[in-house]
Amino acid sequence: xxxxxxxxxVEVLLSAVVLWFPVKTSGLHPPSGVNVEAVHGxxxxxxxxxxxxxxxxxxxxxxxxxxxxxxTPVYCLPDNTTCSYCVSNLNTPDVSCITLNSHxxxxxxxxxxxxxxxxxxxxxxKDLIPEECLQRSEWTNxxxxxxxxxxxxxxxxxxxxxxxxxxxxxxxxxxxxxxxxYSVLYKKxxxxxxxxxxxxxxxxxxxxxxxxxxxKIWVTASTSNREGQRSTLTTVExxxxxxxxxxxxxxxxxxxxxxxxxxxxxxxWEGPRCEIPEGFYMKAKKCLDAGRExxxxxxxxxxxxxxxxxxxxxxxxxxxxxxLGYNSSxxxxxTLHIKSLGLCKLQHASVSHQPxxxxxxxxxxxxxxxxxxxxxxxxxxxxxxxxxxxTSVTAILSLSPLALV
Length: 405
Hints:
Protein name: Fibronectin type-III domain-containing protein
Signal peptide: 1-27
Structural class: alpha+beta
Domain Fibronectin type-III: 151-241
Domain Apple: 274-368
Oligomer: single chain
Distance between the termini: 156 Å
Radius of gyration: 39 Å
Keywords: Disulfide bond, EGF-like domain, Signal
Number of strands: 28
């Protein structure tokens, strides 16, 4: 019985030693202090962690994007405080970790993008086979910060009046993250530089400018982290007065009125700039719901006057949309805009049938006809007023000179 008990005790002790021995002799512990940092924009990722004595190799695991490197020797600082590993961006040609630091002889290349979430884990290894990587860190998540966008393209400026200028542009070729705003920088000769900020736009309007003055203009794009380079310089000169820009449409005559202007419209046109055909309501940059495309008729390369006449002539036409400068495929063409031609869409529906949505065209709707009872009422009112006027005149003329005295 005693021998049996002794045997069991020895067996338990041997089992404990067997289980304890690999852990004790391995000398490995999970890497700690894991940190990830982007260098030179998104060209490189440097993964670093606290130095571990007697750990010859490490393996780097990536969850996003899925990839791995090692087991491999890594570079550790001479003071034995930190070890690190370099990752180069596969999307950026001609970049190499060894050019960043000659000690990064072992590295890997993966696809990296600005504002990308990267998940990294570091494993400590006894040997060059993955099965010997017995201790691992927790996953470390890192978002590559946005960079500085490349220069804004195709910057154009045109005067709208003596005090306003419209500036338009195209987004940079390399946004290097999400563009959150555009800055328009402008100045006149021998004056300080001014700035206007526009968010989520491809154009903006500068106001409170000086008449008949030349302005220098640049545009920059910015991410949440950095402002990009300036665009190529463009210049523009404001008009001398409000009428020089020909604000009155459809042959309306412009007259200066204080610091502004007034338009004298020709027959069949109305509105502040003679832009609205008589008998129609108008909403700028609005269209009917696109779900009713089958109830419309399209005309391309036509004038606004043509569209108005067609809708007036067709009794079933309740409204129309007109896009100045747009062709049949809905693309803006500057030559059409210069020729005052565009896309006309006659509709058999109005806002009473479906809502209006934002769009690049203008919406025109026929005004309801005046009812016959209203016509009769108006005619009676005019007749009554005319009769009263004539009665008064007759009474005055009938007075004798004595009575007038």
